Amino acid sequence: VIANITPAEYVVVVAFTLEERDFEVRAKFIYFADTQDIHIMSPLPIHDQPALHLAKAMNKFMEAIPYDKLLINITMHLNHRIQNKNSTNIPDLHLTITAQPLEDIESDEMVVAKPVSKWVGECGLSSDTNCMVRKLSITCDGHQDIDYAFIISFKERIKWQQPKEGDITIQQLCSAPVLDAEDFIPSHIKKSLRFVPVEIKSHTWIDISKVHYSIYKRGTDSHFDFNNKNASTFAEGTLYPMLQMGDVERMLDNAAESLKGYIISLMEGMGLEESAVQSVRDFHPVFEPFWGAALNSISSAIYLTAYCHYLDWRHHKYDKCK
Q1: What is the C-alpha separation between 40 and 293, in angstroms, rounded?
Q2: Cα 44-299-96 angle, rounded to 5 deg
Q3: What's this model's pTM, rounded to 2 decimal places?
Q4: Distance between CA atoms of 135 and 77, rounded to whole angstroms?
């Protein structure tokens, strides 16, 4: 976090990072004008994997619904820009619906389709939860079509720190050739050890103790209340250490049904045949997140994140080691 940055200074920072070609990794900049601070978040596998898993479940749900995919397109974006005249954000998860009306072959004009945002979400370490809530609040206030907001957080048992330079084993790791991912990440582990601390040379590169999901629904007053835990607009659950996702599943079912209802309204607005609209009404697919598969994929992302920590330390902290 960098504090006391004026809006003009923030513009300069963004312009510089866009023009600089030597950066190997592009961090995500989040600027809060009210407090004039910048939050810099390095993109890591642990930020993308939970959103990717939800995207796969949503794609399967939508593919089962018999509507014309050429007329109505639903896309789950990862790290996709969402902006209006007042703000720009890059949420980890961003679901949009784009309707392309039937083309009038007798006209020389066409409708310019505009995507409508329906879901947004953030994934990150629990220490960044306040930042994620602030970011979602700004995004949801600026886009009134958003119906649901997600926060997926990872609690660290031990906050990651750089290795101590005076440690003999760390000095050996420093002097040795850089490890390949195949040497750093085991090829097989016991299922009971999916979330154990990732340690190399007695140093913990990541240690996740909890994976927590929160879902917020826009209220009847047309606002999101990220401080209210009323069951009608909020659900939470844990994927790990205990699988307790019943409330989250119910909210996801409601969110998926809401999307289906929006598709029906678009079809009716396009004047499509009633039989086509009715077939969508009568179809009731099940939204299946498959939490077991999510556990496996997130475990893999944790190992990849640990490897990213190692590479960042090895290439930047000790890039002049001899």
Answers
A1: 30
A2: 55
A3: 0.84
A4: 17
Contact assessment for residue 311 and residue 178, using Cβ atoms and an 8 Å cutoff: yes
Q: Residue 110: which residues within 8 A CB-CB, separation 6 or more?
A: 103, 104
Q: Are 143 and 114 in contact (CB under 8 A)?
A: no
Determine the Cα–Cα distance for residues 122 and 94; give it in Å rounded to an integer.
9
Q: What is the C-alpha to C-alpha distance for residues 188 and 151, in angstroms, rounded to an integer?
A: 30
Could you give the CA distance from residue 299 to residue 292 in angstroms, rounded to a whole number? Answer: 11
Which H or E run includes 216? strand 208-217
In order, the DSSP letters of 99-121 are E-PPP-TT-S-------EEEEEE
**pLDDT tens track of the chain, all 322 residues?**
667 777 777 667 666 665 555 545 456 666 667 776 766 666 666 667 778 888 889 999 999 999 999 999 999 998 888 888 877 788 889 999 999 887 777 888 888 889 999 999 998 887 678 888 988 999 999 999 999 999 999 999 888 888 887 788 888 888 889 999 999 999 988 888 888 899 988 899 999 999 999 999 999 999 999 999 999 999 999 999 999 999 999 999 999 999 999 999 999 999 999 999 999 999 999 999 889 888 988 898 899 989 988 988 888 755 444 3
**What distance in Å separates the CA atoms of residue 106 and residue 104, rounded to the nearest whole number?**
5
User: DSSP letters of 229-290?
Assistant: --TTTEEEEEEESS-B-HHHHHHHHHHHHHHHHHHHHHHHHTT--HHHHHHHHH--------
Which positions ≥6 away from 89 have C-beta within 8 Å? 30, 81, 82, 83, 135, 138, 139
